Amino acid sequence: MFMNPTSKLKLASAVLALCTTALPPPYIQSSNQGFLVAAVQNINQGKQDAQVLAKVTVQNLPPEGSMYNAEFAASLINGTVLQPNEIFSFNKIVGPRTLEKGFVVGVSISGNRFVPDVGGGICRTSTALHWAAQQAGMKIIEMHNHTQDVPYADKGTEAAVWWGKLDYKFQNTHNKPIRILSRGENNTIRVLLIEDTGNELHSN
Predict the structure, then answer these.
(1) Residues 196/179, Cβ–Cβ less than 8 Å
(2) Where are the chain's structural domains?
(3) Is 125 helix (H, G, I), strand (E, B) or coil?
C-alpha cells in the first residue's frame, strides 16, 4: 500500500508516542552503574582471575520502549554461564516477550514495516551478544537477519529474534566455562564474554 510522506510521518509519530508512555519503574539498581567497566578494570588489575574473551557495544536509542526492552533483555541474560560445548539459546533464557514478564511496547519489524510490539527492541541485545560471540570465536548455531535495515548495525550483522520462530544460538567452543555479562548503560547495550572462574565478580 502506498503511503505519502505526510501519512508516513503521522504513523511514525503515533508509533513513537505509543512506545514512550507508561514505562514501568527501572529494574536496574543505580548502584550497579558502570559494573562492566569496573569488572574489566578489576580483571586488568589482577583483582579477578578471569580473561575477557569479547567486549562489544551496540547503540540503544529511542523510542524509549525499545530502549527499555533491550536493557531488560540484557538483564535477563546477564550472569549466564555456559559450560564447554554447551549451546546458548536467546529465546530459552529471555523467554516470552509479554507484559506480564515485564516487557513493554517497543518497535519491531514485520515484513517491510516497523510496528508497535510488546518486547520490540530486544534485537539490539541479541545483536550485541552475536558480535561478542563472533569476537570470542564461538560457533554460531542459529542466526537470522531482519527484513529491513536497522540503525544500530550494518545489514547482515544484526541478529533478529522472534519468540517461537527466530532464535539466536551459539556454542561455547572453549575448553573452559564462559560467563555473559550484559547491561544497558549510557544509551548502549554492553556485552562481555569472560572465562568463568567460579569467583564472584566485583563491581567496585
Answers:
(1) yes
(2) 32-195
(3) helix
Interstrand relation of 169-171 and 139-142 (parallel, antiparallel or unpaired): antiparallel
**SS3 state at 93:** helix
- Annotate 6-22 with b (16+ C-beta within 10 A) or e (fewer): eeeeeeeeebbeebbee
Q: Please provide the distance, in angstroms rounded to a whole number, between the alpha carbons at the two ends of the chain.
A: 54
In b/e form, how buried is each residue of 159-196, taking b as 16+ CB within 10 angstroms? bbbbbeebbbbbbbebeebbbbbbbbbeebbbbbbbbb
Residue-wise pLDDT for 143-152, tens only, equals 999 988 898 9
pTM above threshold 0.90 = no
Q: Which residue has 574489566 as its cell numbers?
A: 40
Signed CA dihedral, 187, 109, 80, 191: sign only? negative
Categorize the per-residue pLDDT at 41 as very low, low, confident or very high, splitting at 50, 70 and 90.
Answer: low
